[in-house]
Amino acid sequence: MENSSGEPPARWRGLPSWLLTQTANHAHRLVTDGFSAVDARGYHYRVLATLEEYGPASQATLGRRSGIHVSEMVATINELAERELVERAPDPADRRRNVISLTTAGKRQLRRLEKQLAERQDELLEPLSPGERERFSELLSKLLDHHDRRTGEGAQTS
Known about the structure:
158 residues, mainly alpha, 3 strands, elongated
């Protein structure tokens, strides 16, 4: 007999791994849509937020801090520099390296991205009460911390 309802089989519908994956797919779509509404992508947010928090850095340091692979970092910095959201300047300590810093326009864009992100978080967590949202975030953090310690990885996403 064929399942024509489009519902996934009951044997996996309640599995935490499946539920997390499906919810992560919705979260990714919401955040991607929010960022594209202000002509940006997730890597832009990660770079701008990292620069604001830690200050100017080399591309390599920025890549490690933001969890963006070097192959993606160059393209991301190029995009942000073309829009004058970051500035690239020679490192006075080692002129072979560039130091990336946040511009005033970059700070304004970061505020727009944070507004989009907050709206999308609210949309994602809409059915949860404020207390449930807090508890849900605590539980997800506990799971992530546990698995990061086991694998020796740090936070890699926004």
